[in-house]
Amino acid sequence: MALISAFTPVFGAVLCGIIAFFFFRTSWRSESSSGQNPPRTSGESSRPWVDEDLQDDTEISGKDNEDDDWTVSETENLPHVPYSPPRYSEEEMMERSQQFFTLLNQRRSVRFISPEPVPRDIIHNVIRAAGTAPSGAHTEPWTFVVVGDSETKHRIREIVEEEEEINYKQRMGDKWVNDLRRLRTNWVKEYLDTAPYLILVFKQTYGVLPDGKKKTHYYNEISVSISCGLLLAALQNVGLVTVTTTPLNCGPQLRLLLRRPANEKLLMLLPVGYPSPDATVPDLTRKQLDDLMVFV
Amino acid sequence: MALISAFTPVFGAVLCGIIAFFFFRTSWRSESSSGQNPPRTSGESSRPWVDEDLQDDTEISGKDNEDDDWTVSETENLPHVPYSPPRYSEEEMMERSQQFFTLLNQRRSVRFISPEPVPRDIIHNVIRAAGTAPSGAHTEPWTFVVVGDSETKHRIREIVEEEEEINYKQRMGDKWVNDLRRLRTNWVKEYLDTAPYLILVFKQTYGVLPDGKKKTHYYNEISVSISCGLLLAALQNVGLVTVTTTPLNCGPQLRLLLRRPANEKLLMLLPVGYPSPDATVPDLTRKQLDDLMVFV
């Protein structure tokens, strides 16, 4: 009886100890992942991702390139050369800026793409244009995989549609009042077969140096996204259409299908071609200057 | 005594219950943040950032827009209209693609910017061009703050240089053999005073609906980066220069200085103007097509 009554306070103490342990452990975890003490590095520390594939490297934070200026570091040891680009008169600048805005403003995302072939050399120049983007420390962390082969395009379509169908069916479980037909339209990606080219844009999350060590690719996602902006402008410039898609859950499967290395992650998939004759787009509007810009 | 002995098994059961509760809670948390069972949503779940400022919202993963296709969801209920952009002959396409690549290939990041004034209307068109970018669910999650006021530019310079100087002095502690002069050059950002305009690009990490609820801004960082690509192309098109800088540690201070709301985060700072007459650039080379592209 004395033994039994001795256990009760012991149990109580153990109970309190365990509660305290778990409590402090969970609050430490939430603190470090919420970044309350941000490290003094720029770069890509702590950037988890939905892909299982991506444990690699986005946690490397190098102190080498804390400078916010992308041109420094790697390029510091290169000789500098004079730079003196074309200069236009103010009237020319005004006209050019208006024409360029008009051109880009006509660009829309288009899912109805004609199977009509497009000369490959044009695509080459579009890719070259994308490759002129700035990048953190001039790492140029991009790979553009251009798929013209029908079988491969079809395999890509199968992978993407399978993933999308799962997504939508899960949603149907939650929102059963949805229009079935609308959902089916959304997971069928005919353009993946019909478009003459699929451009899969991969970001290189890190590089590999000659000695085998990893090379940090600072701001690789921002850099590759900027590059995609140039790619979209280049496509619009020649009258080709595309739609920006981000089938990231399929990223690992597509990486393996296209035999890209482990440091590459799919960022975007762009089907490219002429618009089909009956192509339509949602009748949306863009923000006006007042909503885009604040002038100080 | 009977009462005391009755408590012991009760304590034991409570103890086990509490241990089990905390155990499952922590393992659920680590599972969802490491993505081992990736949520079936695309979007920006679990994306911490270096800014203290950013607790807001990048963890919201909406099931609304699981589609990888950016045009769906919000735009689904809009009427569709025919889309039929200009079409060029293959020869024209070839020529246009070559000219555009040549134009973009001349673009370099330039830190030596002339104080010569630039007409504001040209900058307006450049911003409008950037605003034509695609965005996740057409959220257009960008704000371009254009600073022409000298005092504000100077304050921006002070903030950025202070942060950079701290960074470099920390590095000096580690690498004391570094050339002092080279380091000093790197943290002095004269262009922040001399450039006629500073364009600070903010990403809206979430929106606010009329009822006050948060609106998810899917892929806001990728969208705003694409928009920056268009902005760089538009600047190059009119003969203006800039350098892509990402002073992210200063993000919160700059946000407050410019009175931007809590949902906006600084993505990039671009000083804009004509190149100074003695401007130089590092003599670097860009990847050739073979290194940019893989053709399947």
TrEMBL record, chains A, B:
It is an enzyme of class 1 (oxidoreductase). Pfam families: Nitroreductase. Residues 105-274 form the Nitroreductase domain. The chain crosses the membrane at residues 6-24. Its cofactor is FMN. Residues 30-89 are annotated as: Disordered. This is iodotyrosine deiodinase. It comes from Astyanax mexicanus.
